[in-house]
Write a structure and sequence with these properties.
This protein is an alpha/beta fold. It contains seven helices and 17 strands. Helix 1 links the parallel strand 1 (about 5-10) and strand 2 (about 30). The longest helix is centred in the C-terminal third of the chain and has 20 residues, at about 285-305. The structure holds NADP nicotinamide-adenine-dinucleotide phosphate (NAP).
C-alpha cells in the first residue's frame, strides 16, 4: 500500500496552485479532479482580473495552470472522490473513488462550489433543452435567438455581455432594483444595445414543448406575472459549496456550509487543509490560487512535523 505525502482534491486554481507548490517542495502527491480541469474558471468566457493577462479565456487560463503543474510533475487522477476517512490503524487519510483506495498523510480540500439552481418550475425538465448554467458551453446554440440571464452578480453581467455577441437579444432579470456585480461589469452590460433589463423581477416558471419557448416573469413587489417568449435561459444565481467530503472527516463548516480555515488554510482537523471557493472567501481565481499556495506550504510543514507554520503572525 502506497502512502502519498499529500492528496489534493479539486483541480481548479486552488488545487492546481497547491500542486505547483507541493511539487516544488518535493511532496509525493496526487490531484483528483472528477469534472472539468480548472473548475469554474474554465467555464468563464473572459477573465479580466488575472494579473498579467488583461483578458484571457477561462479555459485557456485553466489549461495553462494545468500544464504548469504537469511540467513540475503533477499526477492527476480524473476520478471523483466519493469518500474520505481517517484510517486510524494506518495513521493516514483514506480516499475512495469507484472501487479504488488512496492513502495520504495530509489532505488539501479544494473542491470549490457548484452553481446554485433557481428552483423555478420547469428548471429540471428543460435542463439542456433551453435552461443552462454555462454560457461558454451552451451559448453557441442560441445564435440569433432570444435569451434571458437570471441574476445580478458578476457572472450574470459578464456572461450576458458574452451572450449578446451570439444571441439576437439578451434580457437580464434581477430580483432587486440594483446589481450585486462590480460597477465595471454593470457599465459594460448597460452600454450594450442588445442587452435589456428587467429589474425587481424573477422567473417563476419556464415553459415549452421539447425546448424552452417561454418564461413566466414575476414582479417581486406586485407579484404580477407575465409570460414572455424566450429560447434560452441562463441561470447565474450564485454558488453552493461542495463541502460534503470535508464533513466526512469532521471538518468544521460555517452556517453557509463553507469550510472554516485559519490564516494558513488549516481546518480544525490536523493534516486537513482547505483552499479556494470552498472556504467562502472571495470566489476569485487569484484568491483561490493564493490560498492554494498557502495550503501546500502549510501541508509541507505539517508532513515534515515542523512546530511552527509560515504565517505565525496570523494565528
Ligand atoms: P453572486 O455574486 O452570489 O450573485 C448571485 C446573484 O443572483 C445576485 O445578484 C443575487 O441577487 C441573485 N440571486 C440569488 N438567489 C436568487 C434567487 N433565488 N432568485 C433570483 N436571483 C437570485 O454569484 P455569481 O454572479 O455567480 O458570482 C459568484 C462569484 O464569482 C462572486 O463572488 C463573483 O464576484 C465572482 N465572479 C467574479 C467575476 C469578475 O469579473 N470579477 C466574474 C464572475 C464571477 P441579489 O443581488 O439580490 O443578492
Amino acid at each position: 500500500m502506497e502512502i502519498y505525502d499529500l492528496i489534493i482534491v479539486g483541480g481548479g486554481p486552488a488545487g492546481l496552485t497547491a500542486s505547483i507548490y507541493a511539487s516544488r517542495h518535493k511532496l509525493k502527491h496526487l490531484v483528483f479532479e472528477g469534472g472539468v480541469i480548472g473548475g469554474q474558471i474554465a467555464l468563464a468566457t473572459s477573465v479580466e482580473n488575472w494579473p498579467g493577462d488583461k483578458a484571457v479565456r477561462g479555459m485557456e487560463l485553466a489549461n495553462r495552470m494545468a500544464e504548469h503543474a504537469k511540467s513540475l510533475g503533477m499526477q492527476m487522477v480524473q476520478k471523483t472522490v466519493t469518500e474520505i476517512k481517517k484510517d486510524g490503524a494506518k495513521g493516514c487519510f483514506c480516499l475512495a473513488t469507484d472501487g479504488e483506495y488512496f492513502y495520504a498523510k495530509a489532505l488539501i480540500l479544494a473542491t470549490g462550489a457548484m452553481h446554485r439552481k433557481l428552483g423555478m418550475a420547469g428548471e429540471e425538465q428543460f435542463l439542456g433543452r433551453g435552461v443552462s448554467y454555462c454560457a461558454t458551453c451552451d451559448g453557441p446554440f442560441f445564435r440569433g435567438k432570444k435569451v434571458a440571464v437570471i441574476g445580478g452578480g458578476n457572472s450574470a453581467l459578464t456572461e450576458a455581455v458574452y451572450l449578446a455577441d451570439i444571441a439576437s437579444e439578451v434580457t437580464i432579470i434581477q430580483r432587486r432594483d440594483e446589481f450585486k456585480a462590480e460597477a465595471a461589469n454593470v457599465e459594460k452590460a448597460k452600454a450594450n444595445p442588445k442587452i435589456k433589463f428587467l429589474m425587481n423581477s424573477t422567473v417563476a416558471e419556464v415553459k415549452g414543448d421539447r425546448f424552452v419557448k417561454a418564461m413566466v416573469v414575476e414582479d417581486v413587489n406586485t407579484h404580477e406575472k407575465n409570460e414572455l417568449a424566450i429560447d434560452g435561459l441562463f441561470v447565474y444565481v450564485g454558488n453552493v459549496p461542495a463541502s460534503a467530503l470535508g464533513k466526512m472527516v469532521g471538518v468544521a463548516t460555517d452556517e453557509r456550509t463553507y469550510i472554516k480555515v485559519d490564516g494558513v488554510m488549516r481546518t480544525n482537523i490536523p493534516g486537513v487543509f482547505a483552499c479556494g471557493d470552498i472556504t467562502g472567501s472571495a470566489p476569485q481565481a487569484i484568491v483561490a490560487a493564493g490560498q492554494g499556495a498557502m495550503a501546500a506550504m502549510e501541508a509541507y510543514r505539517f508532513i515534515k512535523g515542523f512546530k511552527e507554520g509560515i504565517a505565525v503572525v496570523n494565528r
